[in-house]
Amino acid sequence: MTEYFATSFSDSTTISSSPGGVLLHKNKSILPKLILIDRDGVVNEDVGSPGVLDKSQLVLTPGAGLALGRLRRAGCKIALITNQSCVGKGLITEEHLVHGIHHRLQEMLLKEDEDAIFDHIFYCASLKSSNDYRMKPNPGMIEEALHLFGVEEDSTSDDTIFIGDTVSDLEAAAHARISVRILVETGYGCWIMGGKNAPDGRVQVVLTEKEVSHNIKYDKSKAPYIFPFYYVSNLFSATEWILSNAKNSQT
Q1: Which residue, 152, 45, 61, 64, is CA-closest to 110?
Q2: Would you tell me which of 72, 75, 86, 159 could form a disulfide with 91, CB atoms 3.0–4.6 Å apart?
Q3: Strands, E, within the chain: which ranges?
Q4: pLDDT digits 0-9 by tens, 107-122
């Protein structure tokens, strides 16, 4: 398998695949206005189905609070985009999700970094069978976030970045025409990549379905094409990459 690694947005923001490999077009890199982040497996550790039902189950991924704090100090807006069908299943109430679990999650993040505050939390409590437009892999919540923060929907723009750990995260971002999509190794990311760890201190550019696990049944004729996307260790590593590229573009 051929691997491509990117170390800066200025070297690899716009990517197009070709029979000969990958074309990396150098664009001027700027700090993104909006960072959209999945919850389970990205901000906090994934506990498996049916998900986090009690705040005692919350454990942050390494450096999650520090990552959010650094992004906010840099001027980025941060929104959480999360499916929570456990509410629709009647396993927890919406009040418990908001005032119990999400309140506790915010407390834990602030304990790690005093600036680690979500500007907004979007959640969908519907059942997966409902095909709710707001539920990932549909783009409803992402479109709401783009509208709320005044970000134009433009596939060539680097104003928005989505960070997730599942195929449905990448699909939702692709549906919403977000071109910079980051998959983290934590959560389901490593499984999607066939058990392969993200490269230390680097970002892998994943170009085609040939580079992901054979367990992933991906029909590109029925879903948005999620490739290319970036593969990193965790939320903290993604933040390091985002901020280092913005800094490099200014020098």
Answers
A1: 64
A2: 86
A3: 4-6, 14-18, 21-25, 34-37, 77-83, 120-124, 160-164, 180-184, 203-206, 229-232
A4: 999 999 999 999 999 9
Residue 212 has pLDDT above 60, yes or no: yes
Q: Token pair for residue 13?
A: 């923001």
Tell me how far apart the alpha carbons of residues 248 and 184 are, in angstroms, rounded to a whole number: 23
* CA–CA distance, 166 with 63 (Å, rounded to integer): 20
Contact 208, 17 (CB under 8 A): yes
Q: 230, 250, 149: which is closest to 189 by C-alpha?
A: 230
Alpha helices for 31-157 (secondary structure H): 64-73, 85-88, 94-95, 103-112, 140-148
Token readout for 225 is 């094409």
In single-letter form, the type of residue at position 159 comes to D
Task: Please give the radius of gyration of the chain, using alpha carbons only, rounded to the nearest integer.
Answer: 17
